[in-house]
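Cast an eye over my tokenised protein here and flag anything odd:

===
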Amino acid sequence: MLRSAARKKDWTLTKEAFERLLDSLDANRERAGEKYENVRRKLIEFFEARGSNSPADHADQTINRVAKRLEEGEGVKDISAYSYGVARFLLKETLRGRGKEPLTLDLAPAPLIVTDENEDERRHLEEARLKCFEVCLSNLPAASRVLIIEYYREEKGIKIEQRKRQADALNMSLNALRLRACRIRAELGDCITSCLDRSREDTKSVIRH
């Protein structure tokens, strides 16, 4: 039960989940990339029109939730329409829980949540979460590591300008940079998930003994 709750809380976008999302948009990768950017742009406009202080981050959070539902096997015929439904729910959730404060889109996975009766396990897993992030980040190819760190380096409005400069420096379009960053983050997510699975098993073994 504890394992199930923790896994639900710390779900991370994986390469497989991102590729499945693109497949759901179009079988042709180039058209899928264009449709992905179109959906993301419309989501940003949706959040901007409703006073979000971080519309791009909210759009990315929405897309991640859609990717998670697809990974769980939910049938979605129209990704665009479905994304709007998820966006509306996210907006209500954010305004209800935190006023108009935007959700942070941290590159590292969210903290694990376990019950008070398992404080030792919570401590070990939280340490493992940070260690896995650092190890997986260091294991990325140097170019990918630099790209993903730079992509998430700045905050809010500064982040947008930073990404434009980054795309120019890499001689690629902003859309191409976004897709590349999503793929790298998904690869990072695969590594972190596997690392955390191993850490959970090691933690249970240590606690039992």
